[in-house]
Amino acid sequence: MAFAQLGLNPLVVKAVEASGYTEPTPVQVQAIPATLEGKDLLVSSQTGSGKTAAFMLPCLHRLDQPSALPGRGPRVLVLTPTRELAQQVTKAAETYGKFLKRLRIVAAVGGAPLHVQAKLLSQPVDVVVATPGRLIDHLERGRIDFSRLETLILDEADRMLDMGFIDDIEAIIARTPANRQTLLFSATLEGVVGRLAQRVTKDARRIEIMAAPAHKAKIEQRIHFADDFSHKSRLLDHLLRDVGLSQAVVFTSTKKSADDLAVQLRGEGFSAEALHGDMSQRDRNRTLQGLRLGRTRVLVATDVAARGLDVPGISHVINFDLPRQAEDYVHRIGRTGRAGREGIAISLAAHFEKRQIRDIERYTAQSIRVGVIPGLEPKARPQRPEGFGDKRRSSAPRPTGGYGKGNGNGYGSKGGYGDRKAAYGEKQSSFGEKSGYGHREGTRPGSEKRSTPAGAKRRAYGGY
Ligand code: AMP
């Protein structure tokens, strides 16, 4: 199918084609006509599925016609969990709307001066892309008039709820016209997101992109087991010297370890910068600009900072620390393989982190190959740590090391992966020598049939 067949304004189609997209992705094929019809939508789709264009193109289509209502407030409001994603969405709106006349887009995100944004918002505006906290600041100062708002988009709604924005979101929605169109995009539509969706949408059409997106990135994934922190650092050093690596995002679990690792890598001669939520917006922008321009080769980031990052030059994602949630793994590796390119995602794991890996495999419905680098083979054989899954867990002997105890960066300080002790206990029997770690390909027997919370979640998400 061609974009022209979706009923979009030719100026919007022209801009999309100028971006190099030849055909709409599955989420675009379904969401664009439904949005043009005026339906409320609940869309579950993975990051990288083309969801931004799925909601932005039909909105831009409408913005080509003047509003029937008086006023100067936004006609489209997009709420996103992070500043970076808001900037990404703003950029997409500018790109896809570049042939429309007098299109005014304002990003209202934290970190930038309030008064500058307030001035922009006091002028006529078509699209506001905002993070909830900053938008509340503007609303409280009476800076935004929603009287002519046509469409509200909640982008990555699950993440906004995870980040505790529920009250802000409800307060914002209460200020918008009741006859608005609401489009909710989320990795999952279950649980707390589903309840929010029920409250804020009317007779919504549900679109679930269960299958992998058509232009799904080709990301080669593998794991390297590390004996200790020093071994992990040597593995990282080796991986970063790969000539095939153009740019990499290295994920750590804490802000401090991101800073420390960036310093360490610079000391080893890499052009490395840290990116995390404690940095000022100016520093974050500067770092991202350095990455986009290719001045920075290695970005050392935490999960929150890397959300929405879309830099085509990123050839590798390296999990220096495994993510706390299996879902975050999908977001992390989605930083590579952008814009139809191939990517490599490598996770460095301690031997006792097998359970987290299995959660990821179950969530993504893929097994991850275990790789070994000659000369850097792990000495220890992967094995289940003593006390894993029961009350002794916290006192189980763990290797230590890293930048400091308790910062989540060395081994053993933060288990993460939810409070699922029952699940740990329940699955103990399937752990062990023959149960799948170290396998190189194929699926683990029985893994599809197991009815576990993780399994259920994966089905709901449809894998990656
Ligand atoms: P998103 O899911 O919105 O983060 O988009 C993921 C990536 O897909 C972005 O790099 C987009 O520029 C790109 N993209 C969006 N629509 C298409 C399309 N129809 N064909 C190919 N790539 C696309």
Q: Any idea of the CATH class of the largest domain?
A: Alpha Beta
Question: Biggest β-sheet, characterized?
Answer: 7 strands, parallel
Structural class, by secondary structure, is: alpha/beta
Helix % is: 25-40%
The global form is globular
Distance between the termini: 23 Å
Strands side by side in the biggest sheet: 3-4-2-5-6-1-7
Report the portion of residues in β strands.
Answer: 5-15%
Whole-number count of domains:
2
At the fold tier of CATH, the topology name of the largest domain is: Rossmann fold
- The CATH fourth-level homologous superfamily of the largest domain: P-loop containing nucleotide triphosphate hydrolases
Question: What would your notes on this structure say?
Answer:
It is a single chain. This protein has 464 residues and is of the alpha/beta class. 36% of the residues lie in helices and 15% in strands. The strands form two sheets. Strands 3-4-2-5-6-1-7 form a seven-stranded parallel sheet, sandwiched between helices. A seven-stranded parallel sheet has the order 10-11-9-12-13-8-14. α3 crosses α4 and α15 (354-364) runs parallel beside α17. It is globular, with a radius of gyration of 23 Å. The model is unreliable at 211-215 and 383-464 (pLDDT under 50). The chain binds adenosine monophosphate. Residues 21, 24-25, 28, 47-53, 215, 310, 338-339 line the site of adenosine monophosphate (AMP).
